[in-house]
Amino acid sequence: MRILIVEDEKVAARGLQRMVLDILGKEISWIGWEASLDASRLALAEKPVDILFLDLNLNGENGFELLQGAVAGSFHTIVVSANEDQALRAFEYGVLDFVPKPVSGERLQKAIARVKDANYTGKHAKFLPIRKPKGVALIRLDDVSYFRGEGNNVEIRLKCGVSEYHRQTLESLAKVLPTQFSRIHRSYIVDTRDVKGVVAHGGGRYEIILISGTKLPLSRIHYKDFKNVSLS
Amino acid sequence: MNAEILEDSTYRLNIQQVTTPDFSAKFRPSRQEIPNLGYTRSAVWVRFKVKNLTFSDPWVLQAAYPDMDNVEFYSGDGLDWEVQELGQTLPFYSRKIISRDLLFPISLPFGKERTFYLRYQNETGMTLPVRLLSSHQYQNFALKEQLLFGIFFGFMLVLSLYNLILYVKVRESGYLHYFLYIMAYGLFQFSLYGLAHQYLWPGWTWWARHNVPFFLAFAFFCRTHFTMSVLESQGNTPRLHQALKGLLVVPILFSAYYGLTILDLLPSAMIVDTRAALVISAGYFFAFTIVIFILNIRCLGKKVPGALSFLVAWIFMVSGLILYGLKTSGFFASNFFTEFGMLVGSVGEMCLLFISLGERIQAIKREAQEKHRRQQQAIHAYQDEQIRAMRLELELLKANIQPHFMLNSINAAIMWIKEDPATAEKLLHALSMELKLLLKIVGEKVIPIDEEIRICRMHLEVMSLRHDKSFSLRLEGIKDGEMIPPMVFHTLVENGLTHGYAGKESGVFVLDRVEDEDRIRFTLFNDGKTGDKIAESSGLGLKYVRARLGEAYGRNWRLDSHSVDGGWMVAISIQKQGTTVREAP
Asked: Is the distance from CB of B406 to CB of B427 less than 8 angstroms?
């Protein structure tokens, strides 16, 4: 597991690094520290990481700038900050967790556990920052109809019919999505409010029909979640 | 009707004497349609012959205007004379024909001719509109007249009561003056037309003769007050205001004089006759009119609200009075216009005065609103000032004891505990010292500079330990005990720390003080990184610093913040008292 700590205070960074090492131990293959936004961006571009620990206040620079770009990455972001009043906003941008300062080992462990928990889903995200050639764009999750995963990429199908593409695994993305999104298939996550009905084709083959008329495959293991939705 | 006139300056002739051939020859025919002898003290005899050529009977003789003091009517065959008496000197209820006019019934058989005599006595002018009318004619005339009087005085009464009610409700003295003025002026006219004698004081003959000048004087008194309050002459035309106040003495004296005479408290030698009173009134009226007229024109020039309607009202009133005066003195023939012109003028005047008063009240209201608005503004400004001071205090606390600062410091201390507990201890001590010093100065508008420096040093120590770097503050030319606004340098130090030291292992701040003849100049230099981004993002701190400097020094300070060789510098110049800020070259 590769970990990057972005923190402007040397002592705090050192302490956090030590705590993370205590928790993950040998699972860590690399752990690094950067103090500024620019250096962090370079580091992230150079080598992919699995977890980013991010302080929101970096020598007067606004960590949210990095946050948008960070969450758009394929890794999980855990904010470590004393500015608790910014927690909600951070969650809206899709961070996995917000660990307040002063950092306690217990709290940090909980946050790291979220990364490992395959069933964990976030509740607060409202936006999904995605990388675009010109920078980072924010997708409103309310505008999303469904996500389709394909390897390390995700197609984001918007309700208006347009598709956006985002580099992240569907599994990783599932953790930050709010509860209105439901996994229906190995490769699909839909906004349940956008589901019109379910069609059973027999032989264990099911399909979900969206309001737009789009048909998506529904796996048998997820069928139970949609049994009650009949096609009217 | 051919009237002949004899003026009896001896005042003693009786009917027997004037019918003797001696005096008979002295009667002169009148050349005027309405005989007018002006103001005379003489008794005036009028002789006329009437021959009845109609079958209409009875006839009435309208002998004089109602304000005639006394008129005797002699009818007879030349030997025996029957005499009837009318006038203000007699109680009203002694009249045979109930009317405001002085009427004598004449009964004359068809075809007969007879000579009649009238003897007049009046102090206020001898205008003798002698008319002979059939009682049918007179009735027609009187009915129309009564209707007009009803309309006019009804109007005056309603308007005055309306203004009284307004005064009671609004408590604006203009309405009271106006009410009193209408009452006085209305009573003056009511009396002038003989109606007061008929309806108000039918038995009070002395008062019936003397009330006209009194009411006129009182009307002028009220009118003057009304003018002063509506046109605000005290503020608008102070000198004319004084003149008007001087003129006010006359009606006051007049009223006092009349009060005393009514109560019979005045020695007889001091009793001025009605004629003299009229002359004084006329002179006063003239002076008053001129002052009011000039005052009005001035106020019109100054665009005083209501001045125009006031001026026109004044012209109405004056022309009404002049018209009446000219009619009474026989200059104009008596007709509808001259009889009732004054009344019509009064109605016009009253309406215009009412409008004028309304305009003024409106102006007052606007002024009051404006004043209220200004007061509110002043209150708001004061509150803003208070809020600003409070906000500065709060700002100080928030900026320095904000959770962000505290929690990050504690976080660092926790981290140090594992690595090196002694450093953790040092950090926590420095942090608590900084807090203590900070709490001590909260609420102060100025503090000694040495205290400020202690806080800065504590802060630098906290930050050194948090970042595991070494920050220091060097002083040059600082005078201990000099009073400065709190947290100014602290804020600047903090700004410098936040922006300048990423990637550097140490930092030096230099606080320098230079004093010359007219100003003290502090400069804070730090060897951190420089750039436009710094200036931009340190805005909030600089805003606090500016607010503090403004609170302590008003406008006598300057702040410059710019990058210099090897770092960043902030300079604060404070103008010494008694000198002015010089623009930087």
From this structure: no
Interface of B with A in 520-539 (CB under 8 A): 537-538
Of B414, B465, B467, which is closest to A15 when you measure between CB atoms? B414
Q: Which residues pair with A50 in a beta bridge?
A: none
Q: Does the distance separating the beta carbons of A18 and B418 come in below 8 Å?
A: yes
Alpha helices in chain A (DSSP H): 10-24, 37-46, 63-71, 87-92, 105-116, 170-176, 220-226
Measure the CA–CA gap between A54 and A65, rounded to whole angstroms: 11
Alpha helices by DSSP H, listed for B468-563, are: 488-500, 532-537, 539-553
Q: Do A12 and B412 touch (CB under 8 A)?
A: yes
Tens-place pLDDT, residues B216-228:
778 878 888 888 8
Distances B289 to B240, B249, B251, B292, B319 between C-alpha atoms, Å? 12, 15, 14, 5, 11
CA distance B580 to B381: 26
Burial of residue B363 (number of CB atoms within 10 Å: 0-12, 13-18, 19+)? middle
Mutation site, B401, B402, B404, B468, interface A, largest A CB count within 10 A: B404
Q: What is the pTM of this model?
A: 0.49
Contact A12 B418 (CB under 8 A): no
Rounded CA-CA distance A12/B467 in Å is 8
Cα A36 to Cα B18: distance, rounded to the nearest angstrom: 134
Instruction: Identify whether the C-beta of residue B443 lies closer than 8 Å to the C-beta of residue B391.
Output: no
Cross-chain Cβ contact A9/B466 below 8 Å: yes
Summarised one tens digit per residue, pLDDT across range B168-205 is 988 888 888 889 988 988 898 888 888 888 888 888 88
CB contact under 8 A, B411 and A101: yes
Nearest CA in chain B to A19: B415
Averaged pLDDT, groups of 10, chain B, 585 residues long: 80 82 82 73 85 76 84 82 87 85 83 85 78 85 89 89 88 85 88 87 82 80 82 82 82 73 64 65 78 85 81 81 72 68 78 78 84 87 73 66 82 91 93 89 86 93 92 92 90 84 86 91 86 56 82 86 86 78 45
